[in-house]
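Bit of a strange request maybe. I'm writing a small parser for structure token strings and I need a real example to test against, not something I typed by hand. Could someone generate the tokens for this chain?
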Amino acid sequence: MSSQTQQTPAPATGGQGSHHYVLTLDLPGRMSSTWYGTITPAAGASRHDVFMALRNQISDQHPELSTGNVVFFSLEPNRL
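Reply from user aminoacidic:
Good idea to test on real output. This should exercise your parser:
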């Protein structure tokens, strides 16, 4: 079984977002891809809303990953 890892930061839009995310999708036996970056959720958005927005964005850009298994998802405030 072979896998590929892709790391693509989200495009920046004038500074960092309020939250940092990491999302890894896997197509077993084919590829594994990881995305990371920052995002500022809309007021009142839930963790699930952000997760679905990221999945939809990735699926739009990479249709083959629309059925990928989620291996890892993290969404944390972007502060130390």
